[in-house]
């Protein structure tokens, strides 16, 4: 596990220029844009993308057979990717939150408490990103994975829209249900969201292990 | 060390049925043409593909129970796969150090420098020979009990090949219980290194012999039609029609030397034997 983490951090060296550039852009956004939540999701997404990039590096030149002949189980490989993903995704989220909070305080656009609440509320989305992207990448590899994921997301979106339309035709009031949410308190929602996010992440990890165990190299 | 019994793997246009064994202290060669089933056998032995039948026992364990901890006792070279090309040698050392408790970093770095490999160049920029050397050095640097080497010398020039084979000999000398399974399509490598050799053709093992016996007792007999008719064929393994008459492969060279002094008898080499086994017909 530790060996694989070292490998992935070493692979990240190949992306150091992009990382620096992205941090500079995020800080620029902090200074100029109003919606600080964008900075947090942006950096969290970048963290996930970097994780899948290390998988592309692993895949490069048919690297998997060798990697899996090292003292590494397939399950171990997957779990390591999720840990690495959490570190980068979490790192991106944290950095984004710091930038957003500092920018909000310095520019006097948002009180620190609001910024922190927003960060917490966005954490489940960050986890969701990781939970969706990694299994797709495991199953289909870099290029194909992206295409399949976009199609799937489109389909999910279509299902949600159809579901909403269906609810509307059946006279179920979704707006009223959504309006009840704030009554539960932002903290409770954020906490609930995080719990759901973690459960989805664990489920996603389980699925990825299944995908990897079935593969032939 | 490694025991493969009726390993079966079926693909659309290819079917493997392989039985072989690597004994402790032995270097066993697997030789065959491209596409004969060498890499499939290796991949199955490493658990990279799922067999359709048969059994594989490696270091006393069934391959299905062979876990990450057990893999520490293996050193592996795959012909078409290695560390990500985006890493450097300096990156791989700490990775190996964490993966293998017995990783000998000083030995690894010494061999890297001896082989003239640069520390900070990306592996994808290495030449074929440099990559091959890195793979072998990686495999021998953590006190493995069994090396599984698929075409470790492919793409190397004569001098580089010799250096690699020397590394493998040194590896064997350090501990008499170590073993190597090595495949190659360059028979010269195997003649000088292996204790025994398996020949694989179209997914099947067609010959298994000690290298000494193969080199001393096997021979190709060349003769015209008349000599062929008169020949005692009980020790002839394969026969091939030629423009001048016939070529026959025997594993009893002495018998024919003594009884047919007029025949042209060419000492067996792995190349001669494999060519006859594949292209000749059984009687």
Topology:
The complex is a heterodimer of chains A (217) and B (283).
Chain A lengths: L1 H11 L3 H17 L4 H23 L4 H4 L6 H33 L5 H29 L1 H28 L4 H7 L5 H29 L3
Chain B lengths: L1 E9 L4 E8 L4 E5 L6 H8 L7 E6 L2 E2 L5 H4 L2 E4 L11 H11 L5 H10 L13 H12 L6 E5 L7 H17 L4 E6 L2 H7 L2 E6 L2 E7 H7 L1 E5 L1 H6 L5 E6 L4 E5 L2 H7 L4 E4 L2 H10 L4
Parallel strand pairs in B: 3-8, 3-9, 6-7, 7-8
Antiparallel strand pairs in B: 1-2, 1-4, 4-5, 9-10, 11-13, 11-14, 12-13
Q: Which whole number gives the mean pLDDT of chain B?
A: 91
Structural class of chain B: alpha/beta
**What Rg of chain A do the Cα atoms give?**
19 Å
Total helical segments of chain B? 11
Return the CATH topology of the largest domain in chain B: Rossmann fold
Low-confidence stretches of chain B: none
Overall 3D shape of chain A: globular
Q: What is the tally of beta strands of chain A?
A: 0
Query: In terms of structural class, how would the helical and strand content of chain A be classed?
Result: mainly alpha
What oligomeric state is this? heterodimer
Strand content of chain A: under 5%
The number of domains of chain B: 2
Proportion in helices of chain A: over 70%
Helix content of chain B: 25-40%
Q: What amount of the residues of chain B lies in strands?
A: 25-35%
Main sheet attributes: strand count, strand direction, barrel closure of chain A: none
How many helices of chain A in DSSP terms? 9
Structure summary, number of beta strands of chain B: 14
